[in-house]
């Protein structure tokens, strides 16, 4: 019996110790697990914050009174968290939203698309560049944001949107009378002149076109979208790129053929745009299908036959003086010449605008008929190109749909 009592006593003592250990170890393990979970969550949040901080630090030198950093929460509030109702449109960079800040300022927010491979480069290029450019004919950036996974560019809101929204709409184009068109063209010319000659930097836009010209409530033209712009330093006047990016129809032949670009490349684009404003027609697919050639080629053929006025926008009626119309057609053709040396500079263009006698200008030579790639193939269209897009050759003469996507890339000069 004593041995049985001893066994029972030992058993109680053993299990008592186990329960005691369990009572101590159980909560301790729970506490360790809780601390580990908290530490893990803290580490994840810190990593995310550090990642966002690195993005901010990358652009910190750009922050100034002229180009402030804006926090994401304020932009989300202004745009109603990027609601569909506030969406203005979408481009290669990503969607654009309208917003209203707490002080009542209306803004347009470009939001980098998560699917955009080139957008991050375009974002950096535009933020670094626009901080140094200020002119009434350039769109004004109010701020920028690089927080969490978001990259945002904040601009002044321009109620009349882009020039192409009016110019190529048969009903809305009626708002653009002769004087208003001259005002728009003059503003674009002065903006380009500033970029090429008057700013602290010599800037080549490389993607001047109707959709990249915005209009404010007074129809003042403002050049936008500097994601593809290039800065020239010192005495540099020309550069070469191994990858051509831009918009067919506006691209100068030397740029499309050999990747060479300069201020004269922008002048070519301006010439095309000027003729589009005068005629209300695109230099591309629609005009080619109707006339069998581009707008600039058709205009030149009519010019040498003294019939160029036939292409003027019929909506202008008799509101445009004949001599003025001829002068602006001639300037457009001079800008769109194939030979870069024959094209005027933007300072010469502005001077010609102010001249009352177009007969003193040189006679324009013919614009390019077609352009050749380096591999020998040819193209003749106005669609987007990113260096890998299929081109239109002389046998097929097929066309792709026109869109508003711009592919951007920064290359070393």
Automatic annotation (TrEMBL):
GO cellular component: plasma membrane
UniProt xrefs under PROSITE patterns: PROTEIN_KINASE_DOM, PROTEIN_KINASE_ST
Catalysed reaction, written as an equation: L-seryl-[protein] + ATP = O-phospho-L-seryl-[protein] + ADP + H(+); L-threonyl-[protein] + ATP = O-phospho-L-threonyl-[protein] + ADP + H(+)
GO molecular function, one term: protein serine/threonine kinase activity
Chain ranges of the Protein kinase domain: 82-354
TM ranges: 21-43
Origin: domain of life: Eukaryota
SMART domains, per database record: S_TKc (SM00220)
Database matches in InterPro entries: Kinase-like_dom_sf, Prot_kinase_dom, Ser-Thr/Tyr_kinase_cat_dom, Ser/Thr_kinase_AS
UniProt keyword Transferase, yes or no: yes
Record EC number: 2.7.11.1
UniProt entry keywords in alphabetical sequence: ATP-binding, Disulfide bond, Glycoprotein, Kinase, Membrane, Nucleotide-binding, Serine/threonine-protein kinase, Signal, Transferase, Transmembrane, Transmembrane helix
Listed name of the protein: non-specific serine/threonine protein kinase
Originating organism: Dioscorea cayennensis subsp. rotundata
Organism placement in taxonomy: Eukaryota, Viridiplantae, Streptophyta, Embryophyta, Tracheophyta
Gene name as annotated: LOC120258951
């Amino acid at each position: 019996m004593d041995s049985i009592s001893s066994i029972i006593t030992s058993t109680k003592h053993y299990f008592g110790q186990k329960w005691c250990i369990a009572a101590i170890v159980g909560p301790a393990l729970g506490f360790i697990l809780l601390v580990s979970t908290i530490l893990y969550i803290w580490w994840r949040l810190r990593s995310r914050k550090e990642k966002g901080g690195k993005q901010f630090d990358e652009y910190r030198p750009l922050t100034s009174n002229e180009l402030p950093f804006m926090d994401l929460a304020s932009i989300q509030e202004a745009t109603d968290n990027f609601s569909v109702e506030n969406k203005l449109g979408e481009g290669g960079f990503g969607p654009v939203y309208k917003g209203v800040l707490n002080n009542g300022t209306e803004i347009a927010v470009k939001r980098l698309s998560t699917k955009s491979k080139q957008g991050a480069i375009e974002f950096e290029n535009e933020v670094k560049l626009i901080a140094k450019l200020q002119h009434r004919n350039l769109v004004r950036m109010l701020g920028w944001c690089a927080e969490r996974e978001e990259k945002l560019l904040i601009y002044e809101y321009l109620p009349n949107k882009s020039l192409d929204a009016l110019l190529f709409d048969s009903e809305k184009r009626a708002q653009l009378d002769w004087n208003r068109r001259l005002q728009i063209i003059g503003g674009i010319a002065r903006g380009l002149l500033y970029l090429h000659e008057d700013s602290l930097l010599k800037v080549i836009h490389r993607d001047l076109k109707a959709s990249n010209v915005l209009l404010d409530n007074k129809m003042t033209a403002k050049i936008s979208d500097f994601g593809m712009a290039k800065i020239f330093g010192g005495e540099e006047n020309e550069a070469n790129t191994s990858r051509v990016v831009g918009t067919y129809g506006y691209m100068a032949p030397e740029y499309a053929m050999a990747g060479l670009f300069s201020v004269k490349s922008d002048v070519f684009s301006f010439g095309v745009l000027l003729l589009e404003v005068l005629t209300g027609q695109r230099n591309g697919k629609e005009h080619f299908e109707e006339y069998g050639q581009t707008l600039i080629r058709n205009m030149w053929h009519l010019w040498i036959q003294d019939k160029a006025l036939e292409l003027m926008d019929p909506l202008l009626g008799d509101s445009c003086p004949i001599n003025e119309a001829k002068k602006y057609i001639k300037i457009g053709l001079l800008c769109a010449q194939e030979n870069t040396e024959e094209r005027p500079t933007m300072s010469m263009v502005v001077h010609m605008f102010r001249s009352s006698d177009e007969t003193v200008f040189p006679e324009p030579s013919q614009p390019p008929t077609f352009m050749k790639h380096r591999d020998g193939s040819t193209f003749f269209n106005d669609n987007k190109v990113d260096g890998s897009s299929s081109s239109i050759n002389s046998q097929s003469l097929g066309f792709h749909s026109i869109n508003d996507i711009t592919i951007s890339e920064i290359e070393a000069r």
